[in-house]
Amino acid sequence: MRYLRSTRGFTLVEVLIAVAVFAVLGTMTTVIMVGVLQGAKKAAAVALVKNEGGRVINIMTQMLKFSTSVTACGGNSVTFQPRADASNPAVFACVNDGGGKYHIASNSASLTSDRVEMTSCIISCDAPVKQVNVNFTVQMKGTAFVSEKATTQFQTQIGLRNRE
User: Fold this and answer.
1) Gene3D superfamilies, alphabetically (predicted)?
2) 147: which DSSP letter?
């Protein structure tokens, strides 16, 4: 009996090798894409945390630097007169939300959005009050994956103008 060999097709071994090569390439591509997407989520979280914390620092700096007087400072809060013609003083305070979470409030309004939370908050002054020290840590709120977490500490000393 004579066997005829066809030269027009692929053998089973050649097909299996091709499938294995494509499977390895597909797996590598998937791993790379997942890494890129996680990196993008982490970068977005870091940007959000930095923007929120920077915004709080900017608001506090602008209002305190040009205030006419600081009437009380202590207990993680500072009370000041924002303008000479303002009848009511303004307050920046670290408010404990419970469970180790805080927010900085300006009178009763929170200076941060719902997307972030503070894990520490300290407002202090030196005597006589010529500067206000602000120190807080902001982190992304409600992240399911460790790769999406972002935490940044903010610290500044706000020098007060119009002081003798």
Assistant:
1) Glycoprotein, Type 4 Pilin (3.30.700.10)
2) G
What integer pLDDT is reported at residue 2 of this predicted model?
64
Write the DSSP string, 38-53: HHHHHHHHHHHHHHHH
Segments in the chain forming alpha helices (H):
12-65
Asked if 72 and 79 count as a contact pair (C-beta separation under 8 A), the reply is yes
- The domain spans of the chain are 12-159
Average pLDDT, the chain: 87
Model confidence, pTM = 0.77
Matching residue, tokens 């091709």: 18
Q: 77 near 93, Cβ under 8 Å?
A: yes
Give the position of tokens 């399911």.
144
